[in-house]
Specification:
This protein has 466 residues and is an alpha+beta fold. It has ten helices and twelve strands. The strands form three sheets. A five-stranded antiparallel β-sheet has the order 2-1-5-4-3, sandwiched between helices. The protein has a five-stranded mixed β-sheet with strand order 7-9-10-12-11. A two-stranded antiparallel ribbon has the order 6-8. A hairpin with a 2-residue loop joins strand 4 and strand 5. The mean pLDDT is 90. The structure holds adenosine-5'-diphosphate. The site of adenosine-5'-diphosphate (ADP) has 23 residues, from helix 8 and helix 10.
Length: 466
């Protein structure tokens, strides 16, 4: 059963329950009211008549007629008076009078037994009320007075009320059915829009958004869905670009290897020096492939969020190790590599992470430098934050490239990066690793040429600082 039908049916069910109540309760209540008023007036009239007949030793047609002459009763349809055997001594109805016959109405029989009886019913559009009381002489029942009232006037009123209520209810019901249809349609149409958007996105249309208006819960769900879709779309675009870039990066060295090996195979009598040279090139290309795959694996690990367990790591030994490893490379390029520890620092990370960050930044400083240039690593910071800067006076990064420098495979100068064995992934690894450890990294141009990279990481509490 669709949501629209469910909503519609529940509205209608509620209103039907209300209408049934509206059509029954006021009617039974007013019926009850009429009965009670009838009871009091009829009993009153009968009591007036029995009082008039009181004191008589025996009831006869004559003395009853004489006594009742004075008690003209209005509003009563018929009055009967019987003697103790039930024989009718007086009948207010002139045509078809029952005078002299025996009355066997239950009420009269009960009155002759000494009870006051009242009975009322609403039948065939009229109120029928019957009342009977015994006539007593010296504790002896000598007869009974019976009064019957047939009232159509109040019955008509009640009937009118009933039909007015019914018409009114029919109108309300029709209105509610129409309204519930419209309302549930509006409501479910918006759910439908949302479901349609979700379906299309599941089928791969990542640009799809749900346009559901309003300020209610459905609009809120649609809003949440749209932001989820934004995220998915961005992730999907990044993933696609990454896969395309990665394949492209892997293709280049592979093509080189193929070309070189083809040349060796197809050139007869190639002299051994050229062969060695080509094989050397092949080796270089495979080293490049290895570096790219290693970097890719590292990035994938970072993406999956599988960090090495964090432990307090002192930074100075890591800086010393990096400086030691890269000293030869720096000397080869005539770049001066130095470091300065202004304030010792311990951070919560994996040692390998820190090594990767400092190594990549320092290696870049050496790679993108001039002969005679310098790279300086500096460790400083305050009580909360550790600030690590890697500064060089090398070729620098153009202002317009700065915002994209941490993107995967982004290089300012592709040829230069390749020439130095760069993969274009070094800074992405730095930025992802820093972020995973709760820090930030920024790149800026250094005054007077060169660049400064600044890494900020939260200081580990109680770390061994001096
Ligand atoms: P690569 O493997 O190419 O070095 P990175 O991600 O480490 O990749 O760096 C991206 C690009 O940023 C480099 O190709 C280079 O153009 C530029 N770059 C990085 N560090 C520096 C630096 N210290 N000075 C000048 N340019 C730099």
């Amino acid at each position: 059963m669709s949501l629209q039908v469910k909503f519609g049916l529940s509205y209608v069910a509620i209103i039907i329950a209300v209408l049934v109540l509206m059509n029954t309760y006021p009617l039974t209540a007013s019926e009850d009211l009429v009965f009670r008023s009838k009871e009091s007036t009829l009993k009153n009239s009968v009591s007036v008549m029995t009082t008039a007949l009181m004191g008589k030793e025996i009831l006869t047609e004559e003395n009853v007629a004489a006594a009742l002459m004075v008690t003209e009763e209005t509003g009563i349809s018929r009055v009967l008076v019987t003697d103790e055997s039930g024989r009718i001594l007086y009948d207010s109805r002139e045509t078809d009078s029952a005078l002299g016959r025996y009355a066997f109405y239950t009420e009269i029989v009960q009155a002759l037994h000494g009870d006051d009886v009242f009975f009322a019913a609403y039948e065939d559009g009229a109120f029928h009320s019957r009342c009977a009381s015994p006539v007593i002489y010296r504790s002896q029942t000598i007869g009974a007075v019976y009064a019957y009232e047939y009232d159509t006037e109040q019955a008509t009123l009640l009937h009118n009320l009933q039909s007015t209520l019914l018409h009114f209810s029919e109108a309300i019901l029709a209105f509610v059915i129409a309204l519930s249809f419209i309302l549930s349609r509006i409501l479910t149409r918006r759910f439908g829009l949302l479901a349609e958007a979700i379906r299309q996105m599941r089928e791969g249309d990542y640009g799809r958004r749900a346009s559901v208006g309003g300020h209610d819960e459905i609009a809120e769900i649609a809003g949440e869905f749209n932001s989820l879709a934004d995220r998915l779309q961005t992730t999907e675009e990044v993933r696609r670009r990454f896969v395309a870039d990665a394949s492209h990066e892997l293709k280049t060295p592979l093509a080189g290897i193929r070309l070189l090996s083809d040349s060796i195979l197809q050139t007869e009598d190639m002299d051994s020096t050229t062969v060695r040279e080509f094989v050397g090139d092949i080796e270089q290309e495979s080293e490049r492939l290895t570096r790219i795959t290693e970097d890719l694996l590292r990035l994938t690990r970072l993406d999956s969020g599988k960090n090495d367990a964090a432990e307090p790591v002192s930074i100075t030994p890591v800086i010393e190790r990096v400086a030691h490893t890269l000293r030869l490379v720096a000397e080869e390029r005539s770049v001066d590599l130095s470091y300065e520890i202004k304030r010792e620092a311990t951070v919560r990370a994996a040692e390998d992470d820190l090594h990767q960050i400092i190594y990549n930044l320092t290696e870049n400083g050496i790679k993108y430098n001039y002969s005679g240039g310098y790279v300086r690593i500096c460790l400083a910071g305050d009580d909360e934050t550790v600030v690590l800067t890697v500064e060089d006076n090398g070729i620098g990064i153009p202002e317009e490239d700065l915002p994209r420098i941490f993107d995967r495979f982004y290089r300012v100068d592709k040829m230069r990066s390749r020439a130095y064995g760069g993969t274009g992934l070094g800074l992405s690894i730095v930025s992802d690793t820093v972020r995973r450890r709760g820090g930030t990294v920024t790149a800026a141009a250094r005054e007077g040429g060169g660049s400064v990279f600044t890494v900020r990481l939260p200081r580990a509490e109680g770390g061994g600082e001096k």
